[in-house]
Amino acid sequence: xxxxxxxxxxxxxxxxxxxxxxxxxxxxxxxxxxxxxxxxxxxxxxxxxxxxxxxxxxxxxxxxxxxxxxxxxxxxxxxxxxxxxxx
Length: 87
Prior knowledge:
The protein is mainly alpha-helical. It has helices spanning 11-19, 25-32, 42-50, 57-61, 74-86, and strands at residues 2-4, 9-10. Strand 1 (2-4) and strand 2 (9-10) form a beta hairpin. 20% of the residues are buried.
């Protein structure tokens, strides 16, 4: 079922982005543009996100990056270094 008609984003796609670490409608929007045009899907996205725990909430609570970048990139190495310091 479509969540965002403007960009053709399905509920399954929103759930996949959530599993990948997007915990807020804004992070979902960054990942796939859902919620950035007419905005009528934002409440639906909030409802979908509210059904499960954010898999990376502990990172956000520690001030660490929530959305990971491409493994091996400088950003990923920096995030790993921050994680090592926190541990």
